[in-house]
Here is the input.
Amino acid sequence: MRLLIIGGTRFLGRHLAQQAMDRGHELTLLHRGRSNPGLYPQAEHILADRDADLSALTTPGRHWDAAIDTCAYFPRQVRALGAALAGRVGHYQLVSTISVYAEFTQPGQDETAPLATLAEPEVQAVTGETYGGLKVLCEAAAREHFGDRCLVARPGLLVGPHDPTDRCTWWVRRMLRAQAQAADSEVLAPGDPAAPVQCIDCRDAAAWMLLQAERGTTGTINLDGPADPTTMGAFLESARAALAPQARLSWVGEAFLLAQGVAPWSDLPLWLPQASSAMHQVSIARALATGLQCRPMVQTLADTAAWDLSRPPLAEGAMRPAVGLAPERERQLLEAWRGAAEGGPRVR
Here is the structure.
């Protein structure tokens, strides 16, 4: 198969590219040349900014059996790509997000759930408030230009090696610190251990996307994991068992954490309050029915740890994403939680 990937050198894109070559596909990557430009010399690289000039795609004789678009954030980007690829591509796959849904109040919602809307559809800034609505517009543009040759994949939280967000990686580092330093062996575990958790190894998402490109699957499909429902307790126990057997999980109540100003998702990655827990219970029945396979979480965590430990030091002035509690803040919260217990009953 002749495959075009828009992106292809960061996280999901690089896993797609590697697996595509492993499967024997003829690969073209369109990217700006800014992230990991030396990756995959055996592939064809088209250096272009999708917001500026896509004329390189229109060279006579160019044609691809499938294209996977990993980095569309504005509908104008999808429309421009659709115009450049008119008559030049068979199957088109858009990487969207489960954030397109208007709300998460009911567990198990599927691809037919109501979608988010934007008060200003022409907004040109991607924020927490506009991200989902912009992706809805990207989906509409994809269907407009590619019609019945289009698959919209809606991933949940992507995790695993090469994750630039450091969300799941923060928990990996936290467990490794607990194993290495006795003073940090007590790990703050947020909320209810029975609370649901969904996330998918990026390599499993990439394998599923390639399978659908090979099959020419169309429609709209939620893409998340694991295959069998899991919980925050199971996730953290997997991390402890794989990375830090001497760590001790101390479960701290949701109400206490919120009262202390702890931000769900960013201060404690993956954790959501009970009122938002349906976001971790999206139906993935269609993905499973079309071949999704999810590796064990312990493997994802171990591989993420190995990758993170192999990363070169940050360049001078560079910073990691601001995610996760600082060690001092976590210790303060644990001490305050114990103090609240000594003072009488506490609200969990």
Notes: The chain is about 35% helix and 15% strand.
